[in-house]
């Protein structure tokens, strides 16, 4: 998810018999139907000879059942067949659970341990990733004394 669709839609303005209306000039707009997903890129295209060619549509979330509805002034809308968007390449770390500090004197474990996930551009978690993650803890107390601790893990 989060990268341009491999196959970009081509939509034609058609009359009730299915013939292309080459004189149609109003914008044709694409809208994602799948709840919780975002469609980005150029979502509104002016047709040329009644045909609108989309070139950079992106769906953020991975799913096997995305659909896009296309609409334009004066025409009945059309909905695409379901298509799949797969999880993309690992590109960033996302904090899933924020750490919460420990009460009392150190050393103590954090009350809530942080949880970090490897995600693609669309924010989809990459399950089974073997990416190495370096974690660094930095603490500065009121008097300015600093403590740094680092460890290496994987996600």
Précis, in short:
With 155 residues, the protein is mainly beta.
Question: What this model shows, in words?
Answer:
The radius of gyration is 24 Å and the shape is elongated. It is an all-beta fold and 155 residues long. A 4-stranded antiparallel beta sheet has the order 4-2-8-9, with no helix packed on it. The chain has strands at residues 10-12, 28-32, 39-40, 44-45, 51-53, 58-59, 63-66, 68-71, 78-79, 83-85, 92-97, 115-119, 132-140, 146-154.
Average of per-residue pLDDT values? 87
Largest sheet: 4 strands, antiparallel
SSE topology string: EEEEEEEEEEEEEE
Structural class: mainly beta
What best-fitting shape do the alpha-carbon axes yield?
A: elongated
Helix content: under 10%
Annotation keywords:
155 residues; mainly beta; 4-stranded antiparallel sheet; 14 strands; 0% helix; elongated
Strand and helix layout:
Blueprint lengths: L9 E3 L15 E5 L6 E2 L3 E2 L5 E3 L4 E2 L3 E4 L1 E4 L6 E2 L3 E3 L6 E6 L17 E5 L12 E9 L5 E9 L1
Antiparallel strand pairs: 1-5, 2-4, 2-8, 3-6, 7-10, 8-9, 11-12, 13-14
